[in-house]
Structures are given as structure tokens and as C-alpha cells.
Specification:
This protein is 43% helix and 14% strand. It has helices at 28-38, 41-44, 47-54, 72-88, 109-123, 136-153, 171-180, and strands at 3-7, 12-16, 19-22, 128-129, 160-163, 166-169, 189-190.
Amino acid sequence: FRRVLFRSDKTSTLIVLGILMQTPIYSAQDEMELMARLWSPSLKDDPLAFVLYIFPWGQAGTPLENFPGPRKWQRQILTDLRDHIRQNNGNLDFSTFREAVASGRGIGKSALVSWLVIWMLSTRIGSTTIVSANSESQLRSVTWAEITKWLAMSLNSHWYEVAATRIMPAKWLTELVERDLKKGTRYRSEE
């Protein structure tokens, strides 16, 4: 039985028998405050507010230090989704959000998809998010790489364990949610 603990300013990773396992990095009080903030309607029902909160926009020493936030077109889609959620709030027969964007290469489509995946997993306990692409190669080399890049920069990256093409809640988070919040996490993942 071998334990090695790696710690940086953002994550704490425990390697047990070759398996990466995330552990809490904040105090219990700080984790509870982060959960309360992420699960509050102000972030849960507003993907733009979530993206602006969870990533280190404009912070020195981060990959986002020269960026104030999402691009204008990304902000518009996130705002449209927020408005759609508000219109459907409480409805059992809700309408499906549909939006198409004509775009070129390298403008941030995969970043937007990544933010939406992280937003869903972070704010909807027990959710499953399925991501597809035109090919498996594109899914693995472009989309998945982008999701894991953005997840690594998020305030709650330590909540998840990342496998080849799957993100699962960390064991400590699953236990806490099931024990204390009495919510199931069995089907919570992103593939």
C-alpha cells in the first residue's frame, strides 16, 4: 500500500496503487461555502455567472491572466441559455434549448462546450452529461482535451476524478453528498 501526496495551490491528489484520487483542498467550512455558492440559483441557473466565478479570469500567473472573460458571442449564448432556464423554471413540460452558431476554426466552440459540461456537473447533483463529436479522434484529441484543460483551472477541480474519457465525482464528494445531503450520485458523470 503506497501513498504519495502531491499538493499545489489548486489541487490535492492522492495516488493509491496507481489510481489518482482527489481529496478536499479547502477547509470543511470553505468547501461548504463553495458548494453553497455553486448550488445557489445565482450560479446554478446562470451559466455565464458560473463561468465568470469558477475560472481565474484576469488573475496573474494563470493562463487566463490576459482575458477578462468569455468572448462576446460566447457570453450571448450563455445568456440565452440563462434566459431559457428562467422561462422554463418550474415547468414540467419545458422546451428544449436550441441554438446554432456559424463559426470558423479556433474561436472557442470547444471552450464553450467545456464550460457547459463543467457547469452541469458542478451545479446539478446526480446529473449525467454526454458529449459527442464528429469522430472519436475529434472527441479525444480536441473536445476532451479542452474539457480537462478547463476543469483543471476551475475552483472545484478537486471535486472530480478524470479518466480517459470520463469525469466522475471524487469519492470524498460522493460520500459527502450521499451521506449529508441524501442525494444520489450514482449516475453522475460526463463521458
